Amino acid sequence: MTMELVRDTLGWCALINIGFLFFWWIMFMLARDFIFRMHTKWFKMSEESFNKIHYVGIAIYKLMIFIFNLVPYLALRIVG
Fold first, then answer.
1. Strand, helix or coil at 69?
2. Which residues, including other chains, have CB under 8 Å from residue 25's CB and lie 6 or more apart?
3. Domain range holding 21?
4. What is the pLDDT of residues 20-53, one digit of tens each?
5. Phi, psi of 16 (to 5 degrees)
6. Number of domains within the chain
7. Do residues 20 and 64 touch, judged by C-beta distance below 8 A?
């Protein structure tokens, strides 16, 4: 594996993950009530805990994108 291949792979991984994150956020903003009704059929939870779970999930997912995709990509860009 060359450094260029790893760098390009990390760049594509970051873009794909950002796309998933954006999709999650859009679905949460536009179809929150539908998603909440689906989840409450399977699990007992309040609307407040549902919102908290998704907010924390989005935050952790975004943090992981930065840590595991963007930072290594930028480091390889600087070095290479």
1. helix
2. 58
3. 3-79
4. 999 999 999 999 999 999 999 999 999 999 999 9
5. -65, -45
6. 1
7. no
